[in-house]
Structure to design on (232 residues):
């Protein structure tokens, strides 16, 4: 397990800022196997979200009795687990909205002319973390954008938080040395999040890290969203 840059020591906040695989591996070993599994399930991993789309995958989440001595360490930075983009987006919403997981929906309302025919209210599934923990995570992810690996995601006059991701693609039952999934999940405004945006790039050609590939795309998409909704 290696980092792209060498560090002598890092705080928990800096582990997230600098996307340290070694740091995450050490932190996750402090968590009991069953507790980790419960939180991952509570955030929606290993389950279908029941979003209104066909053929949804539930991903893959190992049960604690199937863990080996390296499972948790690899899971801490994106391996030995399979997740879908909608699961990631839903989990991030819970991380930053005060700790509540909602069922994702595609349609908000059906309108005819100016009349609302049907409106679909948010469906709360469960509380996953406390509002205090959610606020702490938001502050950590704000620093990822301000001082860490996601500086290319910064927006003008709006505070952004988020996390970069870089994982080797699984091809023919082995991890590729040349093809990657490169990602960034961002949210804004940090103090009262209204938008979560997940950017995933498969096998980028010119770079492989989320901060240099996916974060600039997030910025461009977010700028367009802000142009449409000036209240953000």
């Amino acid at each position: 397990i290696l980092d792209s840059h060498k560090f002598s020591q890092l705080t928990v906040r800096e582990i997230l800022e600098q996307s340290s695989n070694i740091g995450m591996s050490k932190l996750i070993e402090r968590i009991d196997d069953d507790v980790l599994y419960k939180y991952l399930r509570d955030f929606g991993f290993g389950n279908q979200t029941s979003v209104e789309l066909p053929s949804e995958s539930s991903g893959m989440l190992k049960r604690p009795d199937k863990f080996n001595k390296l499972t948790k360490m690899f899971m801490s930075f994106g391996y030995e687990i399979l997740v879908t983009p909608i699961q990631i987006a839903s989990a991030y919403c819970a991380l930053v909205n005060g700790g509540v997981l909602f069922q994702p929906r595609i349609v908000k309302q059906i309108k005819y002319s100016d009349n609302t025919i049907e409106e679909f209210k948010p469906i709360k599934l469960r509380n996953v973390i406390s509002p205090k923990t959610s606020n702490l995570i938001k502050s950590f992810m704000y620093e990822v954008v301000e001082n860490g690996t996601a500086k290319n995601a910064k927006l003008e006059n709006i505070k952004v938080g988020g996390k970069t991701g870089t994982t080797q693609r699984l091809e023919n039952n082995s991890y590729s040395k040349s093809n990657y999934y490169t990602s960034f999940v961002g949210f804004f405004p940090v103090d009262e999040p209204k938008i979560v945006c997940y950017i995933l790039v498969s096998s980028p050609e010119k770079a492989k890290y989320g901060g240099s590939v996916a974060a600039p795309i997030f910025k461009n998409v977010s700028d367009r969203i802000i142009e449409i909704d000036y209240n953000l």
